[in-house]
Design a protein that fits this description.
The protein is an alpha+beta fold and 447 residues long. The chain has one domain: Outer membrane efflux proteins (OEP) (Up-down Bundle), CATH 1.20.1600.10. Helix content is 64%, strand content 12%. It has a four-stranded antiparallel β-sheet, with no helix packed on it. It is elongated, with a radius of gyration of 40 Å. It starts with a helix and ends in a 5-residue tail after the last helix.
């Protein structure tokens, strides 16, 4: 009996040590990306600097800004400098009966040299608002491109937060798997000790050995999830997935959500989301394009002028000039202007419908995010209670097994329930942080 008591005491000590956080687990080897582990803010800054999608969005804004200048260019006069040389010969078609005293009437004029150079200027004086509508459309597209860049930046930051929290959760789940493996191995040693003492059958040892193998498999899966999550975080930051990265998760307990009325959250989202602004600007651009298409069917008043020199010598000295006004009346263009107007009206209808759908989507996202945030916070409290109950159950069952009042199945089932509860608590905490990030994105906070 003394031998059995000594073995039980030794096993109890091992189990208690295995139950302590971090006991029996080798400290992780830090692998910092650069010189130190990355915080969430570090990841956000790195994405702002390196992410190709953000660079593409900024290039789109720059292109839209240049398009404004391009649309404004027809408001100013156009000047062209031209120069040329031609050697020509033409047949002379002169009136019948025309004579030149002492000379024959030539049938051919030339060959002659023609040197010319000068300046030509053109300016549209009035076009019924076509140019002005084009400028307004370009400005609206520029504002839409800026809103799109803001939207893309918010999406990138949200993806980084989710990937960061997923990696933190995966690392914590690995710690949980380590603890579960240590507990299982301690139970195996306890069962082996009691079997050697003749207190339990060999089946208890075999059952605990099977659970040890399963715990090791769970640890392997947890380590794999860490690698996958690290790759996703790298990708979210705009880096290669296989780049080494280590993070510093936040250590403070997550704060509770601020009580927010769902209707107020939806109203805030409609007022602040950049997608709404982008939709408005796209609709404005489409409406301006319709106005430009309508003006394109109207007459245009233009002024033109030219001044230059023309002669048969390399340096011509005969001046030529002209100045005047012209009116263009479109008569027939293969129905091109009418089809342009019909196309822009259809595009306007499409943008209006898309904008209405976007408003519905934003409202649904804000509503869902508010509901999910409350659920995620409630899940933390529920899983914390489950963990406390599972820890107490394991303690009681373990004591009963040591005294021979419980079978190994009860011990292992309780241990599995505790491991499941610890996994659930870990996931609940990081899911809540992800839900907070999604709620902030849904209502347009921090843009």
């Amino acid at each position: 009996m003394k031998k059995i008591s000594l073995l039980v005491t030794l096993a109890s000590t091992l189990i208690a040590a295995a139950g302590e956080p971090g006991a029996g687990v080798a400290p992780p080897v830090p692998r910092s990306f650069g010189e130190r582990a990355l915080t969430l803010d570090d990841c956000l800054v790195a994405a702002q600097r390196d992410h190709p999608l953000l660079a593409a969005a900024q290039a789109g804004v720059a292109a839209a800004d240049e398009a404004i200048g391009e649309a404004r260019a027809p408001l100013y006069p156009q000047f062209d400098l031209n120069a040329g040389y031609h050697r020509w010969q033409r047949r002379a078609f002169l009136p019948a009966g025309l004579t030149i005293p002492g000379r024959n009437i030539p049938d051919i004029i030339g060959p002659l040299d023609d040197w010319n150079g000068g300046v030509i200027s053109r300016l549209t004086l009035y076009d019924f608002g076509e140019r002005r509508a084009s400028v307004e459309a370009a400005r609206a597209r520029h504002a839409g491109a800026m809103a799109d860049a803001t939207t893309l930046g918010a999406d990138v930051r949200l993806n980084i937060r989710h990937a960061f929290y997923a990696l933190a959760a995966a690392k914590e789940l690995k710690v949980v798997a380590d603890k579960n493996l240590a507990r299982t191995e301690a139970h195996e040693r306890l069962a082996s000790a009691r079997q050697l003492a003749g207190a339990v059958p060999q089946a208890d040892v075999l059952r605990t050995q099977a659970e040890v193998a399963n715990a090791r498999l769970q640890l392997i899966s947890a380590e794999s999830r860490v690698r996958v999550a690290a790759g996703r975080l790298n990708t979210a930051m705009g880096r290669n997935a296989d780049a080494p990265v280590e993070i510093t998760p936040p250590t403070a307990a997550p704060p509770p959500p601020v009580r927010t009325d769902v209707d107020a959250a939806v109203t805030r989202a409609i007022a602040q989301r950049p997608e709404i602004s982008a939709g408005e600007k796209r609709t404005e651009a489409a409406r301006a394009a319709v106005a430009a298409a309508k003006a394109g069917r109207a007459p245009k008043l233009r002024a033109d002028a030219a001044f230059g020199w023309r002669d048969t010598g390399f340096l011509p000295d005969t001046q030529e000039w002209q100045a005047g006004l012209s009116i263009d009346f479109p008569l027939f263009d293969g129905n091109s202007r009418a089809r342009r107007l019909a196309r822009t009206k259809a595009e306007l209808a499409r943008e209006e419908a898309t904008f209405a759908q976007r408003r519905l989507q934003v409202r649904e996202e804000a509503w869902s995010a508010a509901v999910e945030l409350e659920r995620a916070w409630a899940a933390i409290a529920a899983t914390e209670a489950t963990v406390r109950a599972s820890e107490e159950s394991l303690r009681i069952v373990q004591e009963r097994y040591e005294r021979g009042a419980a079978v190994v199945t009860d011990l292992l089932d309780t241990q599995i329930a505790l491991a499941r509860a610890e996994n659930g608590l870990t996931e609940a905490r990081w899911t809540y942080l992800a839900a907070r990030a999604f709620f902030d994105r849904a209502v347009g906070a921090g843009l």
